[in-house]
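Q: Structure for this?
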Amino acid sequence: MNIHAYEKLWLIAALVLIVGFIVTITYGSVGLGIAMIDDSEDAIEPSELSEDERFSDPRVEQVGENEYEAYVVAQTFIFQPDPIEVPENSEVTFYVTSPDVIHSFSVVGTNINTMVIPGEVSTMTAEFDEPEEYGIICNEYCGADHHNMEGELHVLPEDEFDMTELSVEAPDEVELGDEAAFDVSVENGQLDDLETTIELEVGDETLTEDVTVAGDSTEETTLTVDTDDLGEGDHDWTVTVDDHDESGTLSVVEELDEGDDDE
Amino acid sequence: MRLSKGGLLVVLALLTPLLVELRVVAGWLNVELSVAQTVLIGLVLVGMVLAYAFWPESDKGSQTEGNATSADRLSKSD
Amino acid sequence: MSETYIDRFPAEAKVIRSAFYGSFLALALGGLFGIIQTLHRTGYYRFIPSEDYYTVLTAHGVFLVISFTIFFLVGVFTWAITTSLDREVEDIRFTWAWYGLMAIGITITGIAILAGFTDATDISASVLFTFYAPLQAHPMFYLGLVLFVVGTWLAGADWFRSWLAWKKENPDERIPLPTFMVLTTMIMWYIATLGVAVAILLFLLPWSLGLIDNVNPTLTRTLFWFFGHPVVYFWLMPAYMMWYIMLPKVSGGKLFSDPLARVVFVLFLVLSVPTGIHHQYLDPGIAEGFKFIAMTNTMFLLLPSFLTAFTVVASMEHGARQRGGTGYFGWLKALPWRDPVFAGMALAGLMFAAAGFSGMVNAGMNINYLVHNTFWVVGHFHLTVGTAVALTFMAVTYWFLPQITGKALWNRSVGLAQVVTWFVGMTFMSNAMHRAGLLGIPRRTAEPLYENFEFDAAVGSVGELQAQIALGGLLLSVSLLLFFANVIGTVLNDRSDSLPANEYAGTLSGPEDAPLVLDNLKLWTGIAIVLVIFAYTFPLLSIIGRGGLFGPDIIEFVPISVDTLPVVIGAIELVVTDALASAADTAVATVSVVMR
């Protein structure tokens, strides 16, 4: 076959370029310690997400010092949880799935971009160094409201990040002279112990209690207030733990209509 | 004319990708060009191309380089 | 008087005219939807609810990349086979039959898509060109595509028939280059369409009819991309054919090398299909190793395009020097830039070079993460199918239309203005699309701006990018109007006596220089099949193993619910009969317009 000299040169140059592309991309894909999206997670039943430990309750969990896992569900037309909150200087592994159609999970301005296919779980690990707020979008057409499907990823400064959850059970009405009992539950989602103070303000009274909540566990305690100190009437109360609070109103009455039930 | 009419049209068209990318390339060199500035540069370049195309040839009555189509050979090429 | 195509092959010219007119109708509709989308997305003019945008987008995609491109292809390939073998088709009725099947098929699909605009029926197919399950379209959508693809299979059979009949009478001759290109392209198509045929016939169509409950989304998606990547070469190879056998002649010269042209087409036959997984780099459920194989195969697909670049430019240079051009670069001035057939193809080829490199970015397994499903991808394919293919098709129409109608082109200057406007418009639009994609702005969305965050532009602003896209889109629409003015003007013109003869480029290095092995189609087909088996057997088995052949149960999310089978079948019968009736009317109307 008669191949012109220039053409031979061109052919060789083309092949060198092609091999060069393959080598650099291979290096970029595996040599730098980056992992591509693949089939490492098991398949899953999309109609049974409520029975899956991870996706029945989409959330962020701490699994090591500076290591977190985020369980995300993408469905028409929202992302759960929203916003996803993680601390700075963390390594977060995302697990994402969908119960209905193909979506994507794409963090704008980053290379965190994956398809989310019902029946499969996408997993990828990312490092977050600086505090930042990112938008999350779905860039795979998923239906009529596809263009409104968005979420947020917040990378919070150390001092603003916690995984504390506060819940309070308090009565609505208490008879004058009785004690009002506030059941306070503090859940610590992080691995390190949480040393904090529970502060209860009701009416003019303030009570505090120091608690230490062990990693990944919950502390429950009850603060009691003598209603004689409060007097009759409606009193607003607030329970505060770090940046979290819960409020309500306590009514102190002369006589309760039915028994002394706390509610 | 140093360029045929068709050739001139194509050269002007080729200025488009040049100008469009100019802002990006300038950005790499930390030079910020606004849209207005890019349009201005574009007009200058267009002017330069037109000047080149219409500048009279150095020797009078010279042939333009074989850029006539077969239909043109029936009429005077410009 | 030189013999034009219509003089030599009047019956075939009629089929080609029908194919082209169908193609242009699709182009017009697709273009109309395109400008609607452009103005809606960029926020300049929204007159439809954003929900309907996706119906528009489905129509734009299907009409342009299935109907416009493939009807044009069958027209050009019919021309190529008959001209290069100097032989009428074996049975013109068979030719009309496959054309009719294609027309009926795409009409049915088109109706299913357009019905999505109205609430009067439950029919819709707003699933986009890729129709990923679990999104579901009306059964008509899938049925129409099946008929269309079967039509193309029969078209290939028609051309193979012609070649085999010719071979019997010419046993010692090399396959003429145009025929060689047709045959290799069609073999590639047969292999490629297997994937989408299985996806539709075994899964999506029965599912949309309610015959099966579920499908495996990863499986149908993978089968689509089995087809989805080689289809771009089905669009590209006719354009390459034009660059190889028309462009050199229009440049005033000959094709630099016939053997290398054959090599290029063989490479496409062999490499086009086992690359589809590069559209699925971000899919869970597919192992990294399979993606890697797809990546390396894809990179080698650069080779035939590189070879084409060399041959095309060398042929142009040869032509220019025949016309008197001199100097290292001065010969460029000697090319027939006033000729829209030349200028269009040259500009299309130039744009394709840029497109190829953005394609390489897409093919990079790691870089892909930055651009997947962003507007960058849209910028890329508007350069490839939108310019390299579409602009080439429009440019060669200025040569073909006179050949198949016997009428002179209405206005060459308008033609030149048309191709240049397309190039300029596409530069603006595609450049802005690429840059927007790099910011993360998504594709396939009615409203690309979001409430809770902003996109950060690197150069200029997002608003400027939107404006540039709208400007480009408007210029493209103007270009289309110029194109249709010329088509209509030509068809309405009088018959001409001074048209050039029907011929294609000669060669500097001819088929006699090509090793015989290149013409061994069976060998190359075998290799292509082996590569496909390597690339796809394990991934497909793995996907089926993970999710089952018919997939897991999924929460129903379908825009229409198909409750009872008999009702559906009745509905299909009604609609299909209507569609056939109106398609027949259209065919009759077209034929009568076309008759002189």
